[in-house]
Structures are given as C-alpha cells and as structure tokens.
Amino acid sequence: MSKKTFNVAVAGATGAVGNQMIACLEEADFPVKSIRLLASARSIGRKLRFRGDLVDVEQLTEKSFTGMDIALFSAGGSTSEQFAPIAAKAGCVVVDNSSAWRMDAQVPLVVPEVNPHAVAQYTQKGIIANPNCSTIQMVVALKPIHRQYGIRRVVVSTYQSVSGTGKKAIEELFNQTRAMINFLEAETRVYPHRIAFNCLPHIDKFLDNGYTKEEMKMVNETRKILEDPDIAITATTVRVPVFFGHSEAVNVETRHACSADEVRALLASAPGIKVVDDPACNRYPLAIDAAGQDLTLVGRIRQDESIPNGINMWIAADNIRKGAATNAVQIAQILGEHYL
Ligand code: A2P
Predict the structure, then answer these.
(1) Contact at 8 Å (CB) between 99 and 217?
(2) Of ligand 1's atoms, which has the minimum distance to the CA of residue 18?
(3) Which residues contact 186 (CB under 8 A, 6 or more apart)?
(4) What's the 75 CA to ligand 1 centre distance in angstroms?
(5) Residues 273, 115, 234, CA angle at the centre, nearest 5°?
(6) Which atom, in ligand 1's list, is nearest to the CA of 167?
(7) Global model pTM greater than 0.85
(8) Which residues are catalytic?
(9) Residues 227-248: tens digit of each pLDDT
(10) Is the pLDDT of residue 133 over 80?
(11) Helix, strand, or coil here: 254?
C-alpha cells in the first residue's frame, strides 16, 4: 500500500514559530506532498528553504487553502480568527498556534503526550488548537502526577523568553543588550519597559481580575487539557531577558501522598520528559539546555514541607519547539496517521 502524503500549508511561515514549523516538518519526515508557505503582503518575494528547495512565500488570502489537507497556523490571533474557518471550509484541517480557538468547546486543545484522544474532536470545526507554550511544558509534567496522585492545586511562576513574543522581541533584546553594554540608550518598542537586564511581570493584556491573559491561559487551558475543571490553579507569568526557552517554578498539591523520589521515578518514565535532577553536581533544568531540542526538562523535584501533600519542581522547555512548532507537528502526525 502506498504511504499517505499531504498538501501542507504553513501560515506565518516567515515568523519565529512558522520557521520552526517548517524545520520540524523536515525533521519529523512528515509525509509532505506539497508545501505552501504563507505570510503577509510584506513577505511577497521572499523564499524559504524546505527539504533543500527554495519555496516562494505567498500572501495569505482566502484562496490559499484550496487543495490543502493540513494548515499549521502561527500568524497571530486575528489572522487565525479570520482564516482558520475559511481553511476548514475548504476541507483543510487547521492546527492553530494562536489563542483564538483554544477555549472554544468545539475545538480540541491538544498536547500529544497528554490528551492525544482529543484530536478526534477536530471534525466539529475542522480546527485543533495548540496550547500556550507555558501551558504545554507544564501539563507534560503534571499529567503523570495527576493520573497517579490526583492534583488538587497548582501554583506556578514562569520565567519566559522573548522568543515567545516573536521575531521583533528577539531583535529588541539583542539591540537593547548591545546598546547598554556600549553605554548607549536602549530603545523600547515591543514591550512597555526595557527587557534587557530586567524582568517584566506582564505577559499579554491585563484583565479585569488583575491577572494577565497569559496567566489565565495557564489556568483555563490546563483544566481543559487535563479534563478536570476542579483543579485549582494560580499563575504569575514573567518575561525575562532570555532568548529561547521558558522556565517555570511549579508547586503541586496532590490529593494522595507522594514522595519526591516517587515523583522523580514517575516523571523519568513519562513520555516527552527528561528528568535532570542532580543538585550535588549542579545539574538541573536550564533554558539554555532546553533550547534546540524537544524534551521537557524537569528537576529540583522536592517535597513542599509547608503542606501535607506537596511537591515543588522546576521545568524548562524550548518554547518555540515543544511550546509551539513541535507540538503542532506532533498533532499533524496524529491527524495524518489516524484520521485523514
Ligand atoms: P510577515 O513576516 O509577512 O509579517 P512573529 O510571531 O515571529 O512576529 O511572526 C508572525 C508571522 O505571522 C509572520 O510570518 C508574519 O508575516 C505573519 N503575519 C502577521 N500578520 C499577518 C497577516 N495579516 N496575514 C498573514 N500573515 C501574517
């Protein structure tokens, strides 16, 4: 029997995540029959490489999805809101990296290590949502703990790299750092304050409850992916002057007692996780080690001595890869292998 192959579109192909999506399709040896690379009118005339060939970047329009089987979207929320339904109507299944569709009850929100079965619900709208980068790496570690011990409450603080904001933010951190070490004034364009040599407790918009949208994404998306609306979650999300790789301090209160050793062993055999936890040798998860690969690194696993059933851990992952592009391509692989 001949192997199935797919016509694949990447919307936002010139962006930080879109670029990585193209690379991940290559690395995963995804069965691409043809590829269409889409971006804004600004990118007309650009070419990007796929499997050694130079491919023209086309302007994303309503006609872009005719004949396409799968579209990976990472071109911002408003683009997804407008074009994902158009793509779906053309018979092209959308895997969307924006937050536009994540909390839609008819759109599955999928992390393949956690809830791959949810992909089946793509038929409702023809759209599958890729979760927020910080949520993805956290739920990969929470799922085995929830299954084994039941999670009652999660308290998370994030240390998020600028690449999560996109290409312009990567340039901003670079330019500000270079300016400052040369005693020049640092220009601020992307963030409301200087990011170089600073930490911003502000990611995405502020909401009426005093939290940011990013913080509430972690709360609501985690409950949806773990299929448990009763988990109590509170988050503080912080942008830090790191180029690639998000880190998180995660405190988990479980329903049933568990020791740090048990959690370490559980996570060591869980899919998508590498336990890096040898404090005596200064070994713990680092953003610089997480960047450029697909595993979620978990370490500093220790008992929370302030409550009966509590665990603390430190989680790091590549926000552009597992937090976005890799997760989207993994979803596309499930779709291609089992549903299309
Ligand atoms: P372009 O490069 O033409 O602006 P990042 O998150 O790294 O900033 O990337 C955003 C991606 O989304 C880019 O590929 C960008 O294309 C694309 N994009 C932004 N706005 C639109 C739009 N209105 N239509 C199509 N693509 C868009």
Answers:
(1) yes
(2) 14
(3) 175, 176, 179, 180, 194, 196
(4) 5
(5) 75
(6) 7
(7) yes
(8) 133, 246
(9) 999 999 999 999 999 999 999 9
(10) yes
(11) strand
